[in-house]
Structures are given as structure tokens and as C-alpha cells.
């Protein structure tokens, strides 16, 4: 997952850079020629969505998602670990349902070749929906990896505390 997350993080950065260049081109075009680039705003919105969805998994890998530590910091370590496991199980379930629904929406969008309404230039929506599905799926996998890591760490700490200490007779 580390390689995939690195690629997704890099792709998100590239997309944000492309958005920046498109905004500069749009503003420059309006300033110098008095007209806008057709479909620029729509493309920027799709790039923004792509950057966000592709960033879920790398953010989870680095444990950078927003957490409220106010209460958890004061809890005993075992109880905090138990709560973390419950939160991850819930997150896996929620993200699995979201991934499934986004996948169905992506298939529907692909089958009708959906485009953004109202733009003079036909901007397809299904690539953004495909990226959303890929991003959520990677997020789902990363949540599973994080959950397995927490459980594995908990089991190791429990097995180390249960081992009888060996005493030497001197």
C-alpha cells in the first residue's frame, strides 16, 4: 500500500498544480483577451475532486485524519486501543458501503457517458467518478491494513505481558 499511497499522493499534488496553472491561464485569458477558457471551471472542479479522493488513503496511512484526542488521551491504554478497534471497524463498514455506492454510480455514469450539464464543452464526469471509486477503494484497503496493525500490536503487547518472567537463581 505504501507505493500506491505514494502514487496517489503524488497524483493529488500534480492535480492541484494543474488546477493552479489552469486558474492562472483562465485569469490571464480574461485579463488580456477578455474571454474565459470554456470548461475551465468544470475541469477545475473535477481535478479538485480527484485530488481529494486520491488523498484519503495516504492520509490514513500517515494517521493525519482529524481525531479528537481530548478524551482519548486521558483513557487507559487498553481501553483506548479497544475504542480505536471499534472506530476502525465502524470506519471499514461505512467506507465499504460508500465504496460500493460510488462504484455503482461510476458504472451508471460510464454506461450513459455522463457529462457536466450546462457547459458549452462536454466535460465527462465518469473519469472523476472512477477516481472517486479508486480513492475510496484504496481508503478501504488502507483502513483494513490499519485495523490489522492495531490488532496485531495489541496481541503482541498482551502476549508479552502474559509471559512468565524467568528468574535466575544466584
Written description of the protein model:
The longest helix is centred in the last third of the chain and has 37 residues, at 126-162. The protein has one domain (2-161). With 170 residues, it is mainly alpha-helical. It has helices at 2-33, 40-61, 69-72, 77-112, 126-162. It is 77% helix and 0% strand. The radius of gyration is 23 Å and the shape is elongated.
Compose a concise summary of this entry.
This protein has helices at 2-33, 40-61, 69-72, 77-112, 126-162. The protein is mainly α. Helix 2 (40-61) packs parallel to helix 5 (126-162).
Features:
DctQ7: putative TRAP dicarboxylate transporter; 170 residues; mainly alpha; 5 helices; TRAP_DctQ; transmembrane helix; DctQ; cell membrane
Shape: elongated
Q: Kindly state the mean pLDDT as a whole number?
A: 86
Rg, Å, rounded? 23 Å
Q: Helices and strands: which structural class?
A: mainly alpha
Distance between the termini: 50 Å
Low-confidence stretches: none
Total of DSSP H or I helical runs spanning 4+ residues: 5
Helix content: over 70%
Summarize the helices and strands and which ones pair or pack.
Elements: H1 2-33, H2 40-61, H3 69-72, H4 77-112, H5 126-162
Helix pairs in contact: 1-2, 2-5, 4-5
Amino acid at each position: 500500500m505504501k507505493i500506491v499511497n505514494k502514487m496517489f499522493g503524488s497524483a493529488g499534488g500534480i492535480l492541484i498544480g494543474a488546477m493552479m496553472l489552469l486558474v492562472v491561464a483562465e485569469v490571464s485569458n480574461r485579463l488580456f483577451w477578455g474571454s474565459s477558457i470554456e470548461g475551465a471551471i468544470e475541469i477545475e472542479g473535477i481535478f479538485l475532486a480527484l485530488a481529494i479522493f486520491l488523498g484519503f488513503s495516504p492520509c490514513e496511512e500517515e494517521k493525519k485524519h482529524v481525531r479528537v484526542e481530548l478524551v482519548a488521551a486521558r483513557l487507559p491504554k487498553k481501553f483506548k486501543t479497544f475504542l480505536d478497534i471499534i472506530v476502525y471497524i465502524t470506519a471499514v463498514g461505512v467506507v465499504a458501503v460508500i465504496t460500493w455506492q460510488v462504484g455503482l454510480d461510476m458504472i451508471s455514469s460510464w454506461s450513459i457517458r455522463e457529462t457536466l450539464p450546462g457547459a458549452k464543452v462536454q466535460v465527462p464526469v465518469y473519469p472523476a467518478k472512477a477516481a472517486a471509486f479508486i480513492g475510496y477503494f484504496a481508503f478501504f484497503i488502507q483502513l483494513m491494513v490499519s485495523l490489522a496493525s492495531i490488532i496485531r500490536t495489541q496481541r503482541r503487547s498482551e502476549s508479552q505481558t502474559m509471559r512468565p518472567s524467568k528468574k535466575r537463581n544466584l
